[in-house]
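Quick one: structure tokens for this chain, please?
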Amino acid sequence: MAPLPILLLHGIGSTRAIWKGWEERLAIWHPCHCPDLRGYGSALKPAPGAPWRMADLVADLIGLLDAQGMARAHLVGESVGGTVVLAAAIQHPDRVASVTMSNAGYRGAGITNVASWREILAREGMAGWNEFMMRGRFGDDYATDSTLDQSALAAYKAAQGSSDPDVAVALGEMLGAVDLSAGLKVLQVPLLVLQPDASPFVPLSTAAEIKALQPRAEICVFPGTRHGLPLLRPDDCVRELLAFYARQGF
């Protein structure tokens, strides 16, 4: 049987480039697809004033599966991308082999700092918001930390700084209204949660809440890691992901 494809979805302010380290390793075993989230890159962007809805983001994802001729796929998402793939798995379990959330929430009430984004953008502009997000993702001393890949961080910061602030705020505020608790309780597909223990946006308690709602979920906590987990720990994340697939018989 041919290996199932993996679709990896990035989060707010990010790009599909965040998956480069993952794709290089995963492509040995599975076909990989890294689309742009709505509002980024070549993806659709709602007209000014149009509502941002989780249903549309899920429809984008399922539409991509259809366009690529993928009857089923593994879904992986980070930050808001993780929430989107969870929603897709809840709504379309027949199309999803497994779902993996990295540094992602399942309900807006558990996500912090989003409410301040409009204020930061109004006071400090895109440069200030970009710096705020970089510190949240990678730590206050990210720019001088010799243990981090500074070229990768510079590229990430440049991409985030050139993203559309209206898209970031709209997605953040949409996320704040999401609550997938009911669907999580009855989720039919295997779930892996890759959880940093020091994200200022998605606290460690989120993983425990997910486990309480969906006892079959597998939780992997990364000590000393912030919200930039996918970029900071690609080797470890891919190792955990492939082990998860093996345990599920994929």
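The chain has a mean pLDDT of 94.
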